[in-house]
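thought: fold this chain, then report.
action: predict
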Amino acid sequence: MQRPPVILSHADILAPGACAALTRAALTPARPALHGHDFHELAWVQNGRVRHHLSEGREDLVEGDVIFAGPGHLHGLQGRGADALLVSVTLHPALIADLGARHPALAGRLFWADAPAPLRLRRDSRQMAELNRAALRLERGRRDALGAEAFLLPLLCALAEETAPLPAEAPDWLARACAASRAPDVFHDGASGFARVAGKAHPHVSRSMRRFLDMSPSDWINAQRMDYAARRLTGSADSLSEIAAECGVPNLSHFHKLFRQAHGETPQRFRRARQRDVVQPG
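observation:
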């Protein structure tokens, strides 16, 4: 007779007054029993390969894979080969509920997604280095709500910013390219920059964009350019020509046209309506 899964409680893991606890675990190759918990868990592979067992099926995780598991999720973690190391952060359910209530942008995402299984995301080497530095600060610092939020919010903000409106069946490479294309060094090069970070041939990228986003790579890139231009117009005194050149649209007439299509007004009017001198107000 199969035993029911063990359900872990945050009350047994978190110290009084703590909202987070960090664990580094060397995983054995023994097949694990599934377990659940009444808290939220953020975990990532620090080294090696890990098999992630779920209620239905399994997946293999490698360095750079991050999972978001919540109450109601059953899973188990198994080392694959030598030196499989996982970092796990236990997060108080009240902390996650409070963050979701205070930040509507998180609704339906990450810990707040109505998902039947833990969510899996991929981070590159630079992003993993940032996450590991934040984990070290949490490990050595305060574990109360302030310390837990200081650890979580930069990651959540970055992930919310990167999230593209893609359907679940869209390929991972497209999601990664959409996230990467928000950087100036990518959108400056236009559609070719998008194809470069996608690592796919331009025709294949175009077909995929049409299928999953109903737009061309140029449409997507121009949207990122004009979002960046809006932030630069309100946050700097740089000229329109300088900002347009940064965006990769040195033709000012074309820049004006794209900006007006995106924001409904000219760059000059947009700047005048929103820019305020907060350093030396006159």
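thought: worth noting. The chain has a mean pLDDT of 89.
final: tokens above.
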